[in-house]
Amino acid sequence: MALYRLIYVSQAIAGLEYPDFIEISQKSEFNNKKVGITGMLSFGDSMFLQVLEGSRRTVSQTYNRILLDKRHVNAELIDFSEIEHRSFSVWSMKVVQITNQSEVRDIILKYSSSDVFSPISMTGEQSLNFLFELTELYKKGAMG
Ligand code: FAD
Fold it and tell me: pLDDT of 8-24, one tens digit each?
């Protein structure tokens, strides 16, 4: 079965708080597990950057549902491509908060014009590499 990867960016509405992320994280893990979606959701500086992996149908359905969510606005698709294999297969949805830690800001700067998290100005490749490096930092236990 063909596998697809979708990456998008969106803007959080004002006043979104930590409990909202917990709720989104729990709901995403629960729903995604049921349909075989894996991926990662990063949030910082009022922006979301999310990658979804799975079958074309489930990725499309999940993305369409996410777009209706009033907790974010101005979603922009960065990439939607066929992939050989999953890159985030251990996570049905890992939610990672972008902090002011210097290691995190260094990765942002590596793929952006400044160390402010602005995934809207990243290419598909930059956003994916950014998420890979964030994953490595997380796995090393060096985040938060
Ligand atoms: P319910 O939880 O019953 O929700 C029904 C409706 O109410 C939906 O339209 C939902 O958007 C809305 N809603 C629920 N809670 C709130 C709230 N606290 N404030 C405002 N509206 C609310 N879902 C996934 O399944 N997988 C994902 O990977 C995923 N990623 C997300 C990423 C972002 C940035 C955001 C903002 C949301 C994400 N969600 C994800 C949540 C998704 O948008 C839906 O809320 C969720 O999938 C709906 O789950 P449900 O069908 O069980 O309906």
Answer: 999 999 999 888 988 99
